[in-house]
Amino acid sequence: MKLRRWFLFPAWLWMALLFFAPFVIVLAYSFLTRGPYGGVWGPWTLENYQRLFDPLYLTILMRSFAMAAAATALCLLFAFPAALFIVRATRHRNLYLQLVMLPFWTSFLVRTYAWMFLLRDTGLINTALEAAGIIHDPLPLLYNNGAVLLGLVYGYLPFMVLPIYATLERLDPSLMEAAADLGARPMAAILRVIVPLAKPGILAGSVLVFIPCLGAYLTPDLLGGGRTVLVGNLVQNQFTGARDWPFGSAVSITLMALVTVLLWVLLRRESEPLV
Amino acid sequence: MKRRDLFLGLTGLPGCTRDTRPRLNVYNWSAYVAPETIPGFEAEFGVRVRYATYESNEELLAKVLSGNSGWDVVFPTHNRIGPMREYGLLAPLNHSWLPGLDNLDARFRAPEWDTGLLWGVPYMWNGTGIVYHRKIKPAPSRWADLWNGRLKGRLTMLDDPEDMLGACLKKIGYSFSATDPGELRAAEREAVAQKPLLRAYLNAEVRDQLVSGDVLAAQLWSTTAQQAIAAAPDLAFAYPAEGFPFYCDCAVILRESRRARLAHQFLDYLLRPRVSAQIVEATKTATANRAAQDLLPESVRTNPVLYPPDAIFGRGEWPRTLPPATQRLRDRIWTEIKSA
């Protein structure tokens, strides 16, 4: 029994050094003042949090929530049928799962750049459509909110597929047969039997997609062309261009607090544990 | 061999390779020296150089603000020298150790940000202007030409508050370094009016899209523009008629450095005509070193993008360090423009 206590030690050490300590630093910064040319100075203040109530920053926060929610909904729309398909596949199930995870073999940054090459005016999609005579002028596919949404859905889709797959796999296949025997059409059986039972997976997937989408800054920056600001870009800009670390910290802490509250509400409502 | 012997042998290894030569720590912009620059200095002075690169002044400032960054020589842009000096981060230059200062171009002997060259040695410089495709008729020559509806969707501005707002300020006749809130708000209205025409706010990454023809006109730095023009001769560059900014990156010695003599030797080494010319040939940038320019081929020396003639040079403005209140207002305006 003595030895068992030590099993968690590496994880604790890791969390303490690389999560808790930085978190405390960011928390402390968020109550300090920006120096005349950047840097973090005294005195202690609440001003950084007051600034957040400015409609400008509230709009950015709302926009980010809307974008993350849209990305999560779209991911769910694509992931649920895909997960169901993989679970019910009699052959090649492992191959399909590997395909879902295939994108992770390359860096996210490289894949985002690949999307830029696909979407741009002289990119593959526009060139192909023009060659086929379907369009005459290139479609503005890159540098808009649609491109950002596409990038987010693409990037986080596997995080939705895998938890849903995990819950569906544990369901008894005879449930569908039972539903059919009781007169449910296949679609009704899926919506009224499978979906409710898959709820823990759907919730877990939604959390895994929503949170990173909320803080995303790379995708909006590269695929959005800097034309929109999401909260991730706001934080990044405060730490780089604006050199206002205290305000950037306050935005980060607020974002974390909002996500924590959201998760807490979700978890309280769900008696079943996530995953 | 016994395992213990092997381990003992391995632990001794670092001791054998331990380098006792003095070490100079140099932190510079990426792609800002020639491949032979650093090895040449190490060989001649019998020292080691720890060399690393950064991509923005903010990255540099974030590191050195602590006053304990471990770097000796860094290369901030001219308008960052004032704040760094005020924060007590810089060591004054000892001119008797820098005979090479005589090689500087007359334009950089007494620059307005450091008239006595007390803190930094001007290294490389560039300006911001308009790079455009030659098929645009008439060719853009003013910032105002970037508000032309015909460029809709094929136009980009820099993703940089200083340059982007600066162009708007210049368009309506104000200084690049404007601090007046009224002037800044007027510039914001210009930016918001222009936004629907813009494809995106892009920095150096616009280069490829200019070359491929996706983008027809862009606000861009002259050195980056020159790289695009070298790849696509259909492109040209204009220093806008209303005025435009110049930026000069300067070599400075940090006060925390304990190797002031060696750091000066490095700065003086960079001032040598031969060394500086090699750097220019490798990086295709504009040097502040007159003697080095004389070693360069005629085509480089007279390149109007990198080395604009005096008449154009006179229209340029060296952006000043902005007071904190203005920085904050500008950041807010920038967020509003991006969020609009």
Task: Describe it.
The complex is a heterodimer of chains A (275) and B (340). In chain A, 72% of the residues lie in helices and 1% in strands. By secondary structure, chain A is mainly α. Chain A has a domain at 54-241: MetI-like (MetI-like fold, Orthogonal Bundle), CATH 1.10.3720.10. The radius of gyration of chain A is 23 Å and the shape is globular. The mean pLDDT of chain A is 90. Chain B has two domains: 19-125 and 247-308, Periplasmic binding protein-like II (D-Maltodextrin-Binding Protein, domain 2); 127-245 and 317-339, Periplasmic binding protein-like II (D-Maltodextrin-Binding Protein, domain 2), CATH 3.40.190. Chain B contains 14 helices and twelve strands. Chain B is globular. The interface between A and B is medium-sized, with 31 and 36 residues.
Would you summarize the structure shown here?
The complex is a heterodimer of chains A (275) and B (340). Chain A is an all-alpha fold and 275 residues long. Chain A has a domain at 54-241: MetI-like (MetI-like fold, Orthogonal Bundle), CATH 1.10.3720.10.
